[in-house]
Amino acid sequence: MELHVYKDSETLSNATAKFVADHIAATLKKQTRYTIALSGGSTPVRLHQLLAQSPYKDQIDWSKLHVFWGDERAVPFDDDRNNAKMAYETLLNFVPVPAEQIHVMRTDIDPTASAAEYEKICHQYFDNTATSFDLVLLGMGDDGHTLSLFPGMPVIHEEKLWTTAFWLQAQDMYRITLTRTLVNRSACVVFLTAGAKKAHALKEVLKGAPNPDLYPSQVIKPVGELHWFVDEAAAADLK
Hints:
This protein is an alpha/beta fold. The protein has helices at about 10-30, 45-50, 55-60, 85-90, 110-125, 180-185, 200-205, and strands spanning about 1-5, 35-40, 65-70, 70-75, 135-140, 165-170, 175-180, 190-195, 225-230. It has a single domain, classed as 3-Layer(aba) Sandwich (Rossmann fold).
């Protein structure tokens, strides 16, 4: 695990954008496609905007990207809470990724059916590969959750399914999510975490005793690289 600490959220977003662009370039020297899973929430918005602008927009071979999501709220695509909607508005509408290479988690069908459909797509990509995604971008909530792995939920310990859907009572909605089983096969995972509200959870996830039911981000242990990109506010309790 590598921890990268930056002064503020803008510096953090710029450093992460450079890392992502460089990682894409280096990976595509060895293979013909690049699979990436995006995250939701507000933290990656600035990262997306930077990737959609020069110089990064011009450096990345978007035609070879295959885009996935880590999780989704089961709300219509035109709902502002929809993670795919956010990604299109901040990144995908501005870069030439072929439409057939963008795999949204569908919210126009039953959530369980959507998760099963997504799992099938993932198996088509990763059944015969040493690793799964080339890069998974993750966020972490104030409560230590990542993906849709929320404290106390059985999905934290899912070991067979690659994707699943479940009702989250606290949010009065279904969530569709990749599981640790698939994400931990990734070549590289990057957590992007900013703000003082994340400081306590970050300390517990990185330095605390193993307690994934309380801090689910602890279950993310990829076979490849693990990077935490954080700002000083989020890292305040680590000293």
